[in-house]
Amino acid sequence: MNSIRRRLSLTLALVLLAAGVLLAFALRDFPRRMVEEHVLARLDHDADLLYVHLLDALARHEGEAALETSLLAAAGPGYDLPLSGHYFVVRLGERQWRSRSTWDADLDLLVGREDGTPRRLAGPAGQTLLVLAKGFPNSVDGRPVSIALAEDVAAIDAAIAAFRAQALTVLGLALLVLLVLQRRVLVRGLAPLDEAVEACRRLERGEAVQFEADAPVEVRPLLAAVERLSRHQAQRLGRIRHAAGNLSHALKTPLAVLGQSADALAARGDAEGADAIRAQLETMRATIERELRRARLAGGGAG
């Protein structure tokens, strides 16, 4: 069946579902990317800080022990605890310094590209490391400098996964509520069309038709047309009833004259002729009464 209500419901449902699918895909990547960008910004800051302290220690011509102490102090206490989830490696030529947190783990953070492209690496104790490796300008003595930092994001990934599950649940419930609401809005919005159909049925029965004034603007012209049709039908039926009444009154005198003529024929001894006229008169009176009754019935509901 070609139903406007069904077509609108299906179209709106598809639009809502498409929006929900797009939002679900956004939830898969956006929270993780946003958190990763925050972590990478902190790692990048720490890398620049280590590089500055490295150059400063080299400029003061400090020994390697003092240089290592300067790097560990610059990194902060988060890089001191073993398996803390915060790690760094600084490479100066062939020399390399590692944070204390890496002493109990075999981590090679300076493997692969050193252009600042983030990557993920399986860490110790089930950790998931987000690694940032960067190459810096050579030191004053011409040795290349590379710095890599890593942070455990396993807890963040778990929190994002929990958030994503909750968000998808809420999204599914919201879509369900929206589908129910849009269905109710459609039913309510198209109810005046059902009212117009019922009005046409009442017109067929000769009943009066009247609509509520708060109908939607889109269907008011249709309801106004049906209401005009109802008034026109009522006026037409009124004219028919009035014309039938006038016809009845107009025929009373000729029928009375015919009745007198039948009596006159009977008085002259023509009983057969008088009976024939009276039979036709009765038929005419019955027909007039029947049509008047029909006119009254037809016009009674629409008046």
Question: Describe it for me?
Answer:
The chain has 303 residues and is α+β, with helices and mostly antiparallel strands. It folds into two domains: 4-163, Beta-Lactamase, CATH 3.30.450; 217-300, Helix Hairpins (Orthogonal Bundle), CATH 1.10.287. It has five helices and five strands. A five-stranded antiparallel sheet has the order 2-1-5-4-3. A hairpin with an 8-residue loop joins strand 4 and strand 5. The radius of gyration is 49 Å and the shape is rod-shaped. It starts with a helix and ends with a helix. The mean pLDDT is 79. It catalyses: ATP + protein L-histidine = ADP + protein N-phospho-L-histidine. InterPro entries: HisK_dim/P_sf, TCS_sensor_his_kinase. This is histidine kinase.
Fold blueprint:
Layout: H1 4-59, H2 64-75, E1 86-92, E2 95-98, E3 119-122, E4 128-136, E5 145-152, H3 154-204, H4 220-267, H5 271-300
Antiparallel strand pairs: 1-2, 1-5, 3-4, 4-5
